[in-house]
Amino acid sequence: MIDMSLSDVRKIYDCSNRVKITYHPVEQSNFEYFCVALKNFKRLLNEAAEDDYWRDFLYPLRRYQFELSAAPLPFNTTSASDYINLANLQKQLSCLKVSYPDLFLPASRLLSQLDILSNSSSNPLLSIYSSIYKSNKQRKIVLLLKESRLIPPVEELISQNNLLNTVKVIVASQLRSLVCHDKVILIGSPYWFPKYVLTAPRTSEIDIVYYRWIRSKWKDEPVFIGSVNSSQSPIKTEIKNTVKEVKPKIDSEIIAAKLEPTDVLMPTIDWSDISQKISQLHSVNSDREEIEAKLFLLEGNTSAVFLDREAKTFVIDLQEEVNSRVQRISVADIEADMFILLRTSGGGDYIVPVANRILNNLGKDVENIRNLQQEWKGRLKLAVKRQGLHSVSQNLVKQGSKIAKNELNIRNWMSELSIKPRKEKDFEAILKFVGLGDRCNKFYEAAYLLDTAHRSAGKHIRKLLLQEVCNADLTQLEQLGSMEFELEKVDGGSMTAFRVVDIDPEIHNVPVSKTAQILEI
Amino acid sequence: MYAKNVLKSYPEKARIFPEAYPSHTNLEQVTSKRSQLYTDEWTPLPNWGTFFIELGRRVAEWETGINRLVVALAIPTRAYAAALTAFGVVLTRATLSNSKIEDTNKYFERLCKLSKGTPVTFFNKARRFKGFYEGVDKSRGQRRLRIRVESRKTGGLTYLVPLEESHKIKIRTTPIRNLPKKQNGRKVFAHSKFIEDILGVEKAKNCFNESQVDCAIFGKINILNKEITQTNFAGSPSFNKIGVLQDVLRVRHFFSTDNPAYRSEVFSDRAKKRPILSDGTIPFVTIFDGASSFIKWRDDWRSSHWIILLDRTEIHFQEAVDIVNQDYINRVDEEGIPNLPSRPPGVELVNYQEAD
Hints:
The structure holds 2 protein chains of 2 kinds. Chain A is an alpha/beta fold. Chain A is 43% helix and 17% strand. Chain A is built from 18 helices and 14 strands. The longest helix of chain A is centred in the C-terminal third of the chain and has 32 residues, at 440-471. The radius of gyration of chain A is 28 Å and the shape is globular. Chain B has helices at 3-9, 17-20, 27-34, 47-61, 81-98, 104-112, 193-199, 201-207, 221-229, 246-249, 291-297, 317-329; strands at 67-75, 119-124, 127-137, 144-148, 158-162, 169-171, 186-187, 215-219, 232-234, 242-244, 264-268, 285-289, 305-311, 348-355. The longest helix of chain B has 18 residues, at 81-98.
């Protein structure tokens, strides 16, 4: 989006005008047998496939199927050892013999096929990809993968090949910029990718390398139901013949089946499962302050974070210009594909230690200021615990705070994340109510100093982050979905930007201490 | 103000495009000629750019009667689409409003019939004065319009304006409480050679004397600023009369000097408050530059014509498309703009009328 010139835009419209899709179907009978057998096994299980037991059994098999279909990796790839434990699977299989005798035979066939594959160094996707690359050596070619997490093992593999090590491996979101390429080689079914990869192409040549049994023929359809008839010609397509290999004797019925793109994709995010897992990670303590938070799934699908829905947080928006990329926005405004900046060393919110340092530099007694803050908040929380929110609300209104009628405001005032009520008369009402009315000025001063220090800290951190972000090569962030930024001038560590993969539509009540913390799921 | 009222306010400005050209005219040729800009000495702005300018022009020329027009586009990139479309809108609106000066006699007679004390704006020596119309002066055997620009307490300076200069007087839509004791007038924007090249010298002189919002854009302000104020264009291949889109668009937000006449406005897609134009009107055309802008602000200014530009690569593209499709089902009339110019590759378009 940045540094756009008219010539960049012209190239994009040229790409749309000239785009040609070339299909490269790939055959590999053992893998085909495995994929189709897995589909049939799921069909046998029917609804039971979603039960915890079967989900755990199927997860490594599904992941293996997806990763080997979505990246040019050898069947014996070492990265599979992260999630496949054949010994464990065999153990489960032996249990099946007793508990599900009818499923034993198909399950054992599936595992033996996996065993055969995991001992094979064959890499048919890479072979096709190499042959395309060899005939286009002088050109700017990029390899497009579905998932960021598949990039490191693929890069490692191609770095070992002198011919291929100049190739850039990217994910789809990198094709949203104005940069155009000579050729994009897409691995897998085009239906796994956002439509814009094909409908707003950043290249005039798209080569799709895919396993023959996964439906992958792209059909361009209008997005508007009332579209004015198009006069332009449809996208040009071509199918290349691929090397045929000798097929072993496999049940012809199985081979005839075709897999839908969604059959191969990993299951969609199950938010209730994630929040259940997370709630198991921390025991609920009724004394802890709880706030309403939004749950964000981070890049890699293995970690998540809760953020106070009323708070603000730092984000990097790559769609913005360089000077506006680091922003502090409301948690409610965070969207998928933005990058949240979280403190990954030192823990918790970054603002507090920086604000403390600012107060120290001003010669203020930080401990006393924070104690005063704790004192009125503590008394308010205690009153709510004893009398209930409704009663406290009525009492505060009697003391002159009109907005205390809204109980949400009292929750905010109790929260550690808010410093003070915006208006002095509301603050005065609280202090009077909790029995601190005789020392109002002391509390006002402490809250004012804290507020100013927190604001300065926010600006300071944003400035440092902006410097880091401006000086950094953000390719890694776009490509891998996360990147660490060291803030040398600030004590206490670094911040890491994570791509937001998805956002839970539900609101959760979580302890304050669990917000802004990365949680493994 | 409703769209139909906007149209009523400027009845002479509205016209149907096909009437502007005889039926035998090749519309594609007309389009490429009247909306053609150059990006350097040798290079004409390609078809995709001309398309957006022409789209803006056609919408600005559209007369819907009681309904308003909605044009939604799915495009490969948002870059320059909103800026060029808005350029087409303002260019056409400015030209249409200028058409009234062609009939000077008629205009002079209309001014003669005004009630004494009608507030007016008077343009004189590249300055703009507020004043009151004070009737017709018939001394020296010639009818001249009396325009008072200063308070009576200090002598009540009055200009006598002859028929041939009557276009220097504009009737104000906003009232004037008092006239100042002394009035030097506000500096009027000096039009660029770029505008002259596009509109011709005579029209360029009178186009942008008054402020009115022909077009509002919701989008990313810093990016629009770059496209509108920092990219050079020319109206002819010689490229010796260079300008920027801002010369025509006259986006209020992008002016650094105080209070020049403006013709369009931009609003951030992340704004917190509901956008309101300073004069309380609604723009003739609203352009949504991107899905986020459309999703957030579509409930505002439902009375103006809409041009919705949806970048296919945006995160909320499909959500915005779904809204457009839903609105399309509830349209009042399928007929949109006829004879649209050929769409560039990768661009999909739907246009329909919606009840005001």
